[in-house]
Amino acid sequence: MEAMQDLNRRRTLLHAAYDSSTVRAMERPLLDRGVPLMRMAAGAAAHVAAQMLDDENIDIEDAAIVLLVGGGDNGGDGLYAAAALADEGAQVTAIAVGTSVHEAGFAAFVRAGGRTLVLDPAADIPGIVAGFSAGEAAERVRTAIDIAEQADLIIDAMTGIGLRGPLRGLPGTMAALLGVKPDENGHVPLPDRPALPNRENDGHLPLVLAIDTPSGIGVNDGTLPGPVIPADVTVMFGAMKPCAMLPPATFACGRLVLVDFSFDLSDQVPVAVAVDDALAEQAIRLPRVTDSKYSRGVVGLVTGSTRYPGAAVLSCEAAARANTGMIRYLGPERAQNMVLAAIPEAVIGKGHVQSWTIGCGAPDAHNAEPDDIQRATAAALLEHYALSADADNTQALAMPPIVVDAGALDMLPKHVPAHVVITPHAGELAELANRLADDGQAQRSSRASHAGARRSEPIAAQNVMDEPLHYARFAADSTGATVLLKGAVTMVVSPACKYGQSETNDAGSPIDVSSPTRAVAHTNANVDTSAGTQPVLVCGSAPAWLATAGAGDVLAGLIGGLLAGNAVGDNGWKAEDIARIAASGAYVHGMAAAIASESEQHGWQEPDLFGQAQPQRFTAIGHPIIASDVARAIGDALADIIA
Ligand SMILES: NC(=O)C1=CN([C@@H]2O[C@H](COP(=O)(O)OP(=O)(O)OC[C@H]3O[C@@H](n4cnc5c(N)ncnc54)[C@H](O)[C@@H]3O)[C@@H](O)[C@H]2O)[C@@H](O)CC1
Ligand SMILES: Nc1ncnc2c1ncn2[C@@H]1O[C@H](COP(=O)(O)OP(=O)(O)O)[C@@H](O)[C@H]1O
After folding, report:
1. Which residues span the domain enclosing 108?
2. Residues 433-458: pLDDT tens digits?
3. Which end of the chain is more exposed for a tag (fewer CB within 10 A), N or C?
4. Span from the CA of 275 to the centroid of ligand 2 (angstroms)
């Protein structure tokens, strides 16, 4: 019993992320009991730093380390860690970026022989004479950058969960000069490095270790709101914060090492949950002794087109391999013939289905002929899902779940139930967001709002990639659909998710929660969106080799397949179940890509737990694949998950 509880807690610890106020609430009882959290944090950070140097064959006695230290407790962690490293013989210079430092930590650092460079003329630090001229202040910044660039290791302890908004002042200057900073559009470009297993360092120096979080990162929403120094390793304390999982911030965290403070996680609501085998397994319906092909689930597909018949093949093959009893295909003759040639098991034409997948490879409104048959079929089908505040929505709520991809996204009705899953990539979500904003369904709030400007130009794919959670939530709350936003880390936001109802984002701007759909859905007991605390589901199982044409078609077919297998009959769908199954589809998809490419690199890797036996190290980079390979590996991925 106890062992089971430990296992569950460990799984939660490694796969759930909590916002900073929840983390502070979990710390409180331990601090009240006098548990020395800062010492524990610092000890772990020093150990990880030493290990990083060792991995690069740098002796600690020969190592030059720079600590960027802020005035809060994050700086305190850094100072104690730096003191421990100085005690081991490293040459450590603390660059104080604020007006104060954690006093006890600083005293320990000085005792250990650490050197200090203060950047702020207004600094009030015991034993340090400040009050220097503006000219000298500028000179000190240049010296600090020189020392940091020549160091073997930079420890970034400027800010942690106490960050408010983008980094400003000297911390902002240091991060901008040593790391990356926003361009004129507010986009923060991360270094262009190969995707390696374990987010391994590719040989560059100085190494960067972030304390708790990389300074300047959007701790709670995963954005990069300003300058930030991308880390090779982030040692995170107590519990994961959302920035550890959510793109783009997760890519600035590098490898994650989590220090368990034995927080009581039992009643805490995470903001984000990473899909793992155990969660995905729940979406895989094992066949019953008495099953027939119908009871195992039938998927209907309105995919492909005369122009892109391959998308029909890919989506059908994925649906057929996703643990289903049968697939039915509707489409133009050319695509029908190709589907049959590739999957003789496919049944052509209409019939009863437990789920739909539509739109992959179908033309959007800009590219379609006026009488395009696929668009007409998809539009007629989607009409059945339209919700309206003053109509009887029984029919819409009783429809089978549907995956709406690519060319069908521009036909999505204004308001739909949560068992409509939309699967845009960033460009498609940008288009949808523009349409919703033009319809007045929600504000266009974005990064521009915290840059002080209001965005008047259209939302671009890059805006979505910069603030994926914001836009996914925007689409979910505006339309009521379950939104699966594809990327290296794919996220699934259900209209009932916690962040659809949260107060502010990391920029401190209010989050738009205008959601007429929520009101509509609430009047219909059949679709339960009332949970209100659903975390964002993130899935990073895919290697970067998966970014290849047609991979999205495979995903849409695969999710259609899992939904069909999970058809629940008359009881209605819960928004959280739909989100879970969709996210599991993305997980299986990523695993299939990993199997096909023989790669151990993943968009997101669960953290190493500090102090546990030597963490598993992966090395296989793998090889390129095409989307058909991914479809063919679905069976093996399912087998691995249920094993
Ligand atoms: N509560 C605790 O006792 C524990 C806290 N721990 C550490 O303490 C951190 C939280 O400490 P704090 O609450 O002191 O906060 P931080 O140390 O994260 O941040 C506060 C500091 O950052 C500066 N700052 C905030 N926003 C800024 C901005 N936009 N631009 C420039 N500077 C900015 C503030 O002026 C202040 O100096 C955690 O992240 C963790 O590293 C750990 O030691 C574990 C125990
Ligand atoms: N860098 C990456 N790492 C891992 N997976 C990725 C990466 N970039 C994209 N993907 C995945 O590849 C797939 C691409 O789908 P999509 O953009 O719809 O392509 P297509 O329209 O050609 O099918 C998605 O599942 C997405 O999550």
Report:
1. 2-188+198-268
2. 999 988 776 555 444 443 333 456 89
3. N
4. 17
